[in-house]
Amino acid sequence: MSSMMTVKLDYSNYVVWKHQIEVILETYSMIDVISDTVMAPDQFLRDSSSSFTTEVNPDFLIWRNREQALFTFLNSTLFPFVLALIVGQESSRGVWKVLEKCFASISRSSVMSLRNELSAVKKGTDSIDVYFQRIKKIHDRLASVSVILDDEELLHIALNGLPSNYDSFSSAIRTRSDVLIVEELNTLLNVEERAIRKRFGVIDTSTMAMAANYQPPGFGRGRGRNNAQRGRANGGRGSNSGGGFHPNAPNAFSSPFSQSQPIPPRPSGP
Description:
mainly alpha
């Protein structure tokens, strides 16, 4: 339980929790209990003059049973550190409104922070694939708080973060009449990255180390260290060239907002 207490309280976890709860409530026809558009029935029946009597309204009893069942269910899905936010609430609608209000402010600050982080990302000395993985990670975090960026916006962000030796490439991409998808831009930038490395004679030492131990069948361009050594041993001249990049596998991560959610029992009538 102590590890549950340290889970980061953020808007992305709330969005996932809210979606799961709404699906369950729709399935059990209980979404109206937390809706502002549906009012609770009067507690007592009215007489012919519309005055309240002392007789309890059966519809109110049904409503109260559903309300209390949902209130208990919602509390059972929340971790203790979230329950602390709703202390004093006595209805499921009250719980729902408190959480919405709390996380509305968190969502605004979270989105602004992530957008600033995305605008500031730079390629630096990273490979193109590492650079795109950094962009993708921030993009996915924005998507988790319901902010979806289109390909054109991501394209400009990716181009803006490139160093000056990609200026010609960036200009050519920006003057295209069609809009590339992000995956196509990634592919083109990998080609440009290899061309720049070749142009400036940059050697990828990690690739050379791999080539020294193994060369896959069909490896046609350039000779690795083993070939160069065999050429020298035979009196010939060997070449020692290398290049390329190593794509990083995407990271997958998640942090739960709530505990496992039990299915609430269908409330019984009065």
